[in-house]
Design a protein that fits this description.
With about 220 residues, the chain is an alpha/beta fold. It contains six helices and 13 strands.
Length: about 220
């Protein structure tokens, strides 16, 4: 008789720094098969298989809250060790070098060059369902149809991707785009650091598949 070996669930920490739909993220990740904990505890955040950083609100306020919780240091240390991190919505935006809101420029984490700026569209905020244009070979969007739709709620975005990889030894980041007025960065896969501008936890079956894909890489 063959013995079945139980598959260990991946441990994911939803980083609780006061900005983000942590309960919605927790439920979505649990449905996708992860063992989820909401915490800002340094040790647990560092040692989890995956760290999810949500974000809702203003860029500058999220950055301030993240720094007060030492989240900036945790993200930097995890990435230095190749430990997976995923940002959602403003949790993605603060990964860029800077953000401009109401004419005020604030520093981001500078994991990627670029500026988060107001959407260039007739209707702002961008609120509702939209398709994305994922690159060939995307792991994040694996198994999803090209017409899959995701839920967006935002007034700011990155319109120009600035990070270039010239070395043949380094894999170029996979950048997914969407359009609301002008094209903007909708998701990024860059080594251990992934992020989405949309909310996968609010995106139904498509979002559930995307989170399952991320958990499968941990």
């Amino acid at each position: 008789m063959e013995l079945s070996i139980p598959v260990k669930k991946r441990q994911v920490v939803v980083f609780d720094y006061g900005f983000g739909n942590v309960r919605s993220a927790e439920r979505a990740l649990a449905r996708a098969g992860a063992d989820v904990e909401i915490t800002r505890d340094y040790g647990r955040a560092m040692n989890a298989d995956g760290l999810l950083v949500p974000g809702v609100g203003a860029f500058a306020a999220c950055m301030q809250g993240l720094k007060q919780a030492r989240g900036d240091w945790i993200i930097e240390r995890r990435l230095a060790g190749g430990r997976p991190v995923m940002g959602i919505c403003v949790g993605m935006q603060i990964l860029f070098a800077r953000g401009i809101e109401h004419g005020v420029e604030s520093e981001g984490l500078d994991e990627w060059p670029g500026t988060v700026e107001p959407l260039q569209a007739e209707i702002v905020p961008h609120m509702g369902w939209n398709t994305v244009d994922a690159p060939t070979g995307s792991e994040l969007f694996a198994g999803l149809d090209a017409d899959a739709r995701f839920y967006f709620v935002h007034s700011y975005a990155v319109h120009d991707w600035q990070l270039e990889t010239h070395s043949p030894l380094l894999q170029a980041p996979k950048v997914t785009w969407s359009t609301h007025g002008k094209p903007f960065v909708a998701a990024v896969e860059n080594g251990a650091l992934w992020a989405t501008q949309f909310h996968p936890e609010k995106s139904g079956d498509a979002g559930a598949q995307l989170l399952t894909n991320w958990i499968g890489t941990l």
